[in-house]
């Protein structure tokens, strides 16, 4: 065109452009024409150079698919996805859907190669005549290439490059389309296209779209439904029937008329389909995405965190997250909906979301570590009385709160360590209501520790010198503090560590402090429930486990950690702990009111200083659980006067506050399961490994202490004398008692008598001077007086008067 000549009309310009482009492409590939105009300034050599360096085939990414997390019974916990997609084969797509998409997008699809020159020219002429875009010029193969390049893009820059309206991209797209046509059959290309295409409303692929808009599988799509979906791919947002029903219907009807025009359907079928409503809102199905939309959001978050730990899914947590949300995984978990419901019902029965205090419970299966349930009083969310904190797990997990001080539930580990060292269950220690341990040294794994000013007291009353069983039943603090001093903190800490106890905030070992047996750090309900499950499993510790199996969309197994179990305690020791904690739940024990059913149950209460958290942990041989009620708001304060279940608490205790949650949950969870019993510990475990104590009653204290030292025991004298029948200042009795014996090296306390019951000594009589000897009379008897005793039969002849 020369300068000054009038511009040709639009149609003529399009024809000229197309002819120019066709000639250009002929230099590249005989018989092919580029589907666009505007390349008048591009030389054949430049186009040839552009194509020369393109790859010979299109490398596509695997289709992004939604992953599903399932409960133990196969029910859905959550769906995770970046693109809601469920790939299907061509045979799983309704034939009318195939006809509809081909009719509106590329009716000569099965006749041409990578480029439909005739269709491109027709679309170009129609668009130019109409003044806007009425028909697309790209073939289905070209559209598939474009969608694939966009799907591979990971950054905004890559996405822009994949969609840019430049001749380089058009030529590249064409070259890839040629490669795709050589690599795949037409049916394979159509199948890939229908699985890749976006249909709006977060629905990728025809199967997800069919389920979303109509609640049917792609194989069941009817004519008007298929026409609607076929029309959506051109502009998924603009023709979205949920937002723009009028535009969606116009587009659908256009597809139907085009199908009739091509003879795919009859005019009557088209008219009937046009009369149908475009959509039934009641049948629209949304696929919730992510844990926030799960019925079990906290459990779901914990599972996802565990999945991200699996380095098979990515070198970093970010890579793993991307893989999980696109790989179409099926993740099976240990969550038992029946037991979960029991936990949730128990929480709902004894607490409310509006409470100041929070409540939580975890339930674990002994011998497997399978986490069957976790529930809490504050629901998931960011609104008032909601939280994103999971009160059941460690701080290291997203949303993990990081635990609470667990109080006297730690005494179970002291009992285990004592039994393992041969301490008998009958072992008695004098346990006053208050004891002064200021400056007293406690051995640790690395030396000793002490507290400058420490005078702990008991929260309950018991006998003056309880046995281990009696002290456990009454949760006698002064007994277990002295016991922990005698056996050392290291054995207790070692047992606790083997049973998975550590600081839930720092993940460090629990600090070996003087008050270790009363709760030395912050632990979680899941951690404590799983530790107690070890006793139920007779000493077999299994790490908590929530993921049982993972498979891909192609039903291939993904390596996932299996059961991680190890022998943590000898069975006899674990049986001994169960024996002691079982007594806690018998009449007179702190857990007696929580006993139910016929199965053996064992448990322990826990209350922290100032009642900031109260616990109950317990188990049968089938299930173990730990419940907690605590203040979770800084600054942490006493639970008393805080609300729980809508009422102000007047008291806070492990048995009366946290215990009822445990009882309700476990009673429902164990319902229908066979009656179970603990294994009775053998006599040696009950009696322990003891040495005989000498009989010291009535002995001076110095002599008694020397005697104990000679036999390998440590001795000490109680500060206050006691009522006794021994003489004042002498040994009245020992603790432990002489009849019970004591472990080698144990500390024996001497109780000295105040003499209040002593029998007074018999007074020594005043000596009487001896009587003087009697001098026989010198007077002679008168004549005739007998000189022999006449009454003595030895003298029969002796008679008076003879």
Walkthrough of the structure:
Keywords: Carboxypeptidase, Cell shape, Cell wall biogenesis/degradation, Glycosyltransferase, Hydrolase, Multifunctional enzyme, Peptidoglycan synthesis, Protease, Transferase. GO terms for molecular function: penicillin binding; peptidoglycan glycosyltransferase activity; serine-type D-Ala-D-Ala carboxypeptidase activity. In the C-terminal section; belongs to the transpeptidase family. In the N-terminal section; belongs to the glycosyltransferase 51 family. InterPro entries: Beta-lactam/transpept-like, Glyco_trans_51, Glycosyltr_51/Transpeptidase, Lysozyme-like_dom_sf, PASTA_dom, PBP_transglycosylase, PCN-bd_Tpept. Residues 688-754 form the PASTA domain. With 802 residues, the protein is α+β, with helices and mostly antiparallel strands. It has four domains: 10-51, no CATH class; 84-283, Penicillin binding protein transpeptidase fold (Orthogonal Bundle), CATH 1.10.3810; 404-683, DD-peptidase/beta-lactamase superfamily (Beta-lactamase, 3-Layer(aba) Sandwich); 690-752, Trypsin Inhibitor V, Chain A (2-Layer Sandwich). It contains 24 helices and 22 strands. The chain has a five-stranded antiparallel sheet. β4 and β5 (371-376) form a beta hairpin. The longest helix is centred in the first third of the chain and has 19 residues, at 10-28. 47% of the residues are buried. Mean pLDDT is 87; it is low at 1-44, 132-136 and 789-795.
